[in-house]
């Protein structure tokens, strides 16, 4: 009971601090280098083969057999745990109002929502956010680093790979005993996550000529969207070094010479033919980008 009171107190305090919080603007470069593309493609091929052989069939069966209310309950429970990490990262980013809202979500859903099975907080007006330590580092000005494909975990960057380490070290499920129950919960989380991505993966399979590039670009765009809280700035247009054109007032007037009629006298002997130069026709080539 004492822990719940402390959670509610933190929720109220952070909401109160939200009005005076200043969030630093992330300095993020839109383009992320892929210097390890050759290695990344090999890891991607391994992950893709493993997914098609094991994870995707299991997730498809899970979605087919398990009733939707049960699947929603499972997703909500894991989402309730994720809200704890979101609250911490919102606080680290100086977004205290959002952090307080996240803690309120955890308190409400963990009690009224039966450990998060039901998302009561959303119905009460507490918006769900999506923050992680990779976004926090971006807010602090840490660059993304090279693009990476991690074995079993998929697309990432050097900066975002910190999420894997933190999740593995601090996830509450790791404290569950006995071990077989802990591993069962981990497997359920993996299957639930994969089931939620079935439609997206099917789209990538059907639409992408180069699946690796498709997923890489989609991942980087998604991360940029999250870092800027859904409102990323427009990417700057490329700069071209054009020749300097002087202002119209300084430009020298262009004089167009007027052709004067010329009289040409030709002596043509009887039976001779005049040979005219062939006329040249300009051909225009339209290239549609």
TrEMBL record:
Keyword tags: Lipoprotein, Signal
Organism superkingdom: Bacteria
Residues annotated as signal peptide: 1-21
Region (Disordered) residue spans: 231-259
InterPro entries, sorted: MlaA
GO BP: intermembrane phospholipid transfer
Pfam name, any one: MlaA
Cellular component annotations (GO), alphabetically ordered: membrane
Family: Belongs to the MlaA family.
PANTHER family: INTERMEMBRANE PHOSPHOLIPID TRANSPORT SYSTEM LIPOPROTEIN MLAA, LIPOPROTEIN VACJ-RELATED
Protein name, as recorded: VacJ family lipoprotein
Organism: Parvibium lacunae
């Amino acid at each position: 009971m004492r822990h719940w009171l402390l959670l509610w107190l933190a929720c109220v305090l952070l909401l109160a601090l939200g009005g005076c919080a200043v969030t630093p603007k992330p300095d993020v470069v839109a383009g992320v280098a892929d210097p390890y593309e050759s290695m990344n493609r090999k890891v991607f091929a391994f992950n893709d083969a493993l997914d098609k052989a094991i994870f995707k069939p299991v997730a498809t069966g899970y979605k087919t057999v398990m009733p939707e209310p049960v699947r929603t309950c499972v997703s909500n429970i894991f989402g309730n745990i994720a809200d704890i990490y979101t609250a911490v990262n919102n606080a680290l980013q100086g977004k205290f109002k959002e952090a307080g809202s996240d803690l309120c979500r955890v308190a409400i859903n963990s009690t009224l929502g039966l450990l998060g099975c039901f998302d009561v907080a959303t119905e009460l007006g507490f918006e769900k956010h999506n923050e992680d330590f990779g976004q926090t580092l971006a807010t602090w000005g840490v660059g993304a680093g090279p693009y990476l494909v991690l074995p079993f975990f998929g697309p990432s960057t050097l900066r975002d790979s910190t999420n894997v380490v933190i999740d593995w070290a601090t996830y509450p499920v790791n404290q569950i005993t006995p071990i077989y129950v802990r591993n069962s919960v981990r497997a359920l989380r993996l299957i639930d996550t994969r089931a939620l991505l079935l439609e997206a993966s099917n789209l990538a399979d059907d639409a992408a000529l180069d699946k690796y590039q498709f997923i890489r670009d989609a991942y980087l765009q998604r991360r940029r969207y999250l870092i800027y809280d859904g409102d990323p700035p427009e990417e700057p247009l490329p700069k071209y070094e054009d020749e300097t054109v002087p202002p119209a007032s300084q430009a020298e007037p262009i004089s167009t010479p007027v052709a004067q009629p010329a009289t040409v006298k030709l002596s043509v002997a009887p039976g001779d033919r005049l040979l005219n130069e062939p006329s040249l026709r300009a051909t225009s080539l339209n290239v549609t980008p």
